[in-house]
Amino acid sequence: MFFRSVPKVLLGDDGRLVPGGSGLPVRPRRGLGSRGARVATAASVLALVLVSAVAPAQAASAGAGTVASEAARRSVEERLAPASAPATRIVPQVPCDRTIDPNSHYDDTTHGFRYFTDQVGRPLKAINTAPVTTGNPGPRGTCQTRVGNFAPAPPPYSAQDFDGGHLIGAQFGGVDQRYDLVPQLATLNRAGGTYFDFENTARQCLNNGGTINNFEVSVDYPDYAGVHPNKFYVLMVLSNGQRNGIINATIPWDLQNGSPEDTNLRQLFSQARLLANC
Fold first, then answer.
1. What confidence tens digit (pLDDT) does each residue in 28-73 have?
2. Are 33 and 10 in contact (CB under 8 A)?
3. Which residue from 178, 123, 188 is spatially nearest to 157, judged by alpha carbons?
4. What CATH number corresponds to the domain at position 79?
5. 24 with 102, same domain?
6. Residue 233: which domain range?
7. CA atoms within 13 A on the CB side of 196
């Protein structure tokens, strides 16, 4: 790096720069006196410039390291809690029907989650509005069973093959409300299933002192008539405060245990927890 010249800068008694033009010496302002202005050395000026340039770069670097994936930032604007949260924390109550209010969102301020419905009124997405920790499980009730029995089930299955599956599990603060419940194959939802293993990964991290900074689950439906999702999109950022592990995956509704896709997903879950060291 080469410099043609280093401009002279005048400092007043208060330590502030006295402005001048084009790198030329500047006369002291009236009232400062001959001893009131002094010329800063080139090293001092260069140090000031370097500090000004490095500080924003360091801040940008730290911010980039906080979230290791673009996917983990895609719902930041939705994840922000309202500025004026209600004084009394609530769990919104809705009917346990096939559909509820379309294009709506529900803020569970008791457990720190926000839920969305699609244009038909089916559950669409759930995201956290605060880091998820242990000690704040959600209630269980009768809606879970009712949702699992919604008919008709996609062939070759019957309603008896389904559970009412939580988008956000009750152990993390999920609730027994229709906006958090969808029909889910029991083999996917219960112990041994892929979705169960996804939730178990998060539970193990929390039990080891970690947190879940981002927790997002969304679903897709094959048509506008049915209420059974055919895909679960999961996004989770596990953290021990210094290291992050990210799960960003698609879980098919009829994924078979032991299939190559199932094996790959379970490996992804384990690797994320290993990276987060929790």
1. 344 444 333 333 333 333 333 333 333 434 444 444 333 344 444 4
2. no
3. 188
4. 3.40.570
5. no
6. 74-276
7. 13
User: Based on the domain organization, do 200 and 119 belong to the same domain?
Assistant: yes
142 phi/psi in degrees, rounded to 5: -90, -20
Residue with tokens 């009712």: 146
Domain match, 78 and 105 both: yes
For β-strands 211-220 and 9-11, DSSP reports them as unpaired
Please give the Cα distance from 52 to 277 (Å, whole number): 35
Token pair 């038909």 in the structure block, residue: 120
Q: Which tokens is 97 given?
A: 């029907």
Whether residue 1 lies inside any domain: the answer is no
Task: Judge whether 167 and 217 are in contact, CB under 8 Å.
Answer: yes
Check if the beta carbon of residue 110 is closer than 8 Å to that of residue 90: yes
pTM for this predicted structure: 0.69
Q: What is the pLDDT of residue 175?
A: 95
Neighbours of 122 (CB within 10 A): 21
**What is the count of structural domains for the chain?**
2
Cα(121)–Cα(257) distance, integer angstroms: 31
Read off the tokens for 224: 């506008």
The total number of residues shown for the chain amounts to: 278
CA 207 – CA 134 distance, rounded (Å): 7
Q: Which two tokens stand for residue 237?
A: 């950022």
Distance of CA 129 to the CA centre of its chain: 8
Neighbours of 211 (CB within 10 A): 18
Tell which residue, 165, 179, 66, 69, has the closest CA to residue 113. 179
